[in-house]
Amino acid sequence: MSQPLSGRHVALLLGGLSSERDVSLVSGRECGDALERLGAKVTRVDAGRDLAQVLTRLKPDVCFNALHGEWGEDGCVQGVLETLNLPYTHSGVLASALAMDKAKSKAVLAAAGVTVPGGGLFNRFEAAAEHVMTPPYVVKPNAEGSSVGVFIVLDGANRPPQEIVSPEWTFGEEVMIEPYIRGKELAVAVMDGKALTVTDIVPRSGFYDYEAKYGDGGSEHILPAQIPLKTLEKAMELAERAHAALGCRGVTRSDLRYDDINDILVLLEVNTQPGMTPTSLVPEQAAMKGVDFDNLVLWITEDAYARGAAGGIASFGETPG
After folding, report:
1. From 275, 303, 305, 308, active-site residue
2. Residue 221 and residue 185 in contact, taking contact as beta carbons nearer than 8 Å
3. Higher pLDDT, 211 or 113
4. What are the strands, taking DSSP E only, across the chain?
5. Residue 92 in contact with residue 247, Cβ under 8 Å?
6. Catalytic pick among 146, 219, 254, 280
7. Helix (H) or strand (E) run with residue 85 in it
8. Active site includes 253?
9. By C-alpha distance, which of 82, 75, 67, 81 is closest to 15?
10. Which one from 61, 178, 269, 284 is the annotated catalytic residue?
11. Do 284 and 223 form a contact (C-beta atoms < 8 A)?
12. φ/ψ (deg, to 5) at 271
């Protein structure tokens, strides 16, 4: 194939410090291989606290951010890259920080007319002492992804999940508690502000947890989702509206729930650094639209650089003066 990134130096950020490190390593491996097939000189950077020093030494043309979770997805790394005046993929500082904070993003989305679940933030010890909401409900960290630390409290549960007050809990003092919405798990990728399609995710375990997301055969992806056309169009419209309301750019993925019995559709969250693994949803949706994995990576990279150049950052191969 042609090598449209020939001569360009891409720093690929992967790994990192969050609980989603292992997923990031896989995303980074896949994206790095694609970048090399596209002709780029790729330097794989396991992003640690010395990231600024490493990138100052490397002087890459652009950074491909394949990090997931805390620090890599919440605006912190984005702030480092802004300070270094380096173009980078995916959303900027504010959009990343907003999307990662479930409580704040829900407020922004609701104000923009996006239907979101009810509920709110609760101290984890209060939430563990007694039901703060009539079951069924969902308990999850306010700022984690990949279904890390998520618990579903079903009808008839005698007590809330005690794991949220265990010494191993590292996800903050407040937890997000929302009503549990039965039905289908849907996902919509948004690329350049436009929704691609809707995927219906059918987890083998009955819950779309970490293993269902990233394990081999953990879930079945049906795309386009076999749901009423008006619901499919509404899901895509909500994802586009959420992407814009949070100020996202590049590629995002919105997660939704659809109660097909009561015809209720809500948007749960927006992922600004969606997975790029062999089982990930965004590459599948892009492929359905005729964009294979390498061309998806190419578009993400070129989009990042175009925005950087528009902001006064030097062209590929040049050093900012």
Report:
1. 275
2. no
3. 113
4. 9-14, 41-46, 62-65, 120-123, 137-141, 151-153, 174-179, 184-191, 194-203, 219-222, 251-259, 264-271
5. yes
6. 146
7. none
8. yes
9. 67
10. 269
11. yes
12. -100, 115
Look up 295 and say whether it is catalytic: no
Choosing among 3.30.1490, 3.40.50, 1.50.10, 3.30.450, the CATH entry for 120-179 is 3.30.1490
115 token code pair: 């239907």
Question: How many CB atoms within 10 Å of residue 154?
Answer: 9
- The pLDDT value recorded for residue 319 is 36
- How do residues 165-183 score in pLDDT, each as one tens digit? 999 998 899 999 999 999 9
CATH second-level architecture of 9-89+291-310?
Answer: 3-Layer(aba) Sandwich (3.40)
Q: Would you kindly state where each structural domain of the chain is located, as residue ranges?
A: 9-89+291-310, 98-115+183-272, 120-179
Whole-number pLDDT of residue 209: 44
In three-state secondary structure terms, 185 is strand
Tell me, yes or no, if 255 is annotated catalytic: yes
CA nearest to 77, candidates 57, 102, 104, 100: 100
Using alpha carbons, select from 146, 114, 118 the residue that is nearest to residue 240. 114
Q: What is the mean pLDDT of the chain?
A: 90
Q: How far is CA 260 from CA 87, 120, 228, 264, 267, in A?
A: 42, 24, 9, 7, 14
Residue 146 annotated in active site = yes
Q: Are 187 and 193 in contact (CB under 8 A)?
A: no
Phi, psi of 288 (to 5 degrees): -60, -30
Token code pair at residue 286: 């892009």
Contact by Cβ (8 Å): 105, 91? no
Q: Which CATH architecture has domain 98-115+183-272?
A: 2-Layer Sandwich (3.30)
What are the pLDDT digits (tens) for 233-256?
999 999 999 999 999 999 999 999
